[in-house]
C-alpha cells in the first residue's frame, strides 16, 4: 500500500517538472524510488552523480509522514549520521526545497538507522543550469493541434470535378525539439477529358499549455494526504 501511495506521489510531482521554468529544474530525489530506505548505501549518490544542480532548482523529497523524514545538516553530522547541529528538520512530506545559492548541501533521514542504511544525499550546487544528465525521450509540456481543411476548385471547362475528402484534425504530443503530426484524406477523382483541379490545403496551428497539470497536482496530493 505504501508503495502505491509513493508511486502516486511521484507521478503527481512529475507534473511539476513539466511546468517548470526553463531557467530552473525540479529534481525528484530518488526518481521512482522516492525518499525511502534504498537497497544499497550508494543509491542516492548514484542518482545524483550524473545530475547538474543549479541555483533556483528545486529538490522534491517524496515520502510519507511518519515513515520517513528529512534533515538538512552540516558535513560533520552528515558523515557520522548524527544530529548534533541540524540546520533544519522536515516531517510533513513531500518536502520541496529551493536551492538558493551555490555550495554543498547535505541531507539525510533522521529516523532510526535510515541514514546508516544509505538514506542520505550530498549535492553540490553550481552556477550552471540544472539538468538530469539524461535526454528526456519525449516532451509532454505542450499539445500541438493541427487542422487541415481541403477545398476543391472547379475548372469552368472541365466536365467533371474532383471529389475532396473531409478535413482532418490530428492531436499529437510534441516529441523532441519540435514535432507536428497532420493528416488529410482525399477522395478519388474521375474525368473523361480534363484533369481535376488540385485541392488547396490550409492549416492552422495552436499550442495549448498543460494548465490542467495544476489541477492534477492539487487533486492527487489531496487524495494522498487523506488516505
UniProtKB/TrEMBL annotation:
Q: Name one GO molecular function term.
A: electron transfer activity
Please give the InterPro entries that the UniProt record associates with this protein: Cupredoxin, Phytocyanin-like, Phytocyanin_dom
Q: Record's GO cellular component, any one?
A: plasma membrane
* Domain Phytocyanin span(s) in chain numbering: 25-127
List the signal peptide residues: 1-24
CDD domains linked: Stellacyanin
Q: Name one Pfam family in it.
A: Cu_bind_like
User: Which keywords annotate this record?
Assistant: Disulfide bond, Glycoprotein, Signal
Quote the PANTHER family the UniProt record gives.
BLUE COPPER PROTEIN, OS05G0570900 PROTEIN
This one is known as Blue copper protein-like
The species is Momordica charantia
Amino acid at each position: 500500500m505504501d508503495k502505491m501511495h509513493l508511486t502516486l506521489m511521484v507521478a503527481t510531482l512529475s507534473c511539476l517538472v513539466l511546468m517548470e521554468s526553463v531557467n530552473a529544474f525540479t529534481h525528484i530525489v530518488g526518481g521512482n524510488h522516492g525518499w525511502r530506505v534504498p537497497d544499497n548505501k550508494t543509491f542516492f549518490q548514484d542518482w545524483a552523480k550524473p545530475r547538474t544542480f543549479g541555483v533556483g532548482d528545486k529538490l522534491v523529497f517524496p515520502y510519507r509522514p511518519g515513515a520517513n523524514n528529512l534533515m538538512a545538516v552540516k558535513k560533520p553530522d552528515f558523515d557520522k549520521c548524527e544530529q548534533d547541529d541540524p540546520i533544519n528538520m522536515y516531517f510533513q512530506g513531500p518536502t520541496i526545497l529551493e536551492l538558493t545559492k551555490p555550495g554543498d548541501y547535505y541531507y539525510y533521514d533522521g529516523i532510526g538507522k535510515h541514514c546508516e542504511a544509505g538514506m542520505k544525499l550530498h549535492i553540490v550546487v553550481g552556477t550552471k543550469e540544472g539538468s538530469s544528465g539524461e535526454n528526456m525521450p519525449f516532451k509532454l509540456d505542450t499539445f500541438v493541434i493541427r487542422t487541415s481543411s481541403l477545398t476543391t476548385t472547379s475548372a469552368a471547362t472541365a466536365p467533371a470535378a474532383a471529389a475532396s475528402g473531409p478535413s482532418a484534425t490530428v492531436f499529437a504530443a510534441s516529441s523532441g525539439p519540435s514535432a507536428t503530426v497532420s493528416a488529410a484524406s482525399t477522395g478519388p477523382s474521375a474525368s473523361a477529358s480534363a484533369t481535376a483541379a488540385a485541392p488547396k490545403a490550409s492549416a492552422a496551428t495552436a499550442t495549448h499549455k498543460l494548465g490542467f497539470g495544476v489541477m492534477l497536482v492539487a487533486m492527487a496530493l489531496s487524495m494522498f494526504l487523506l488516505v
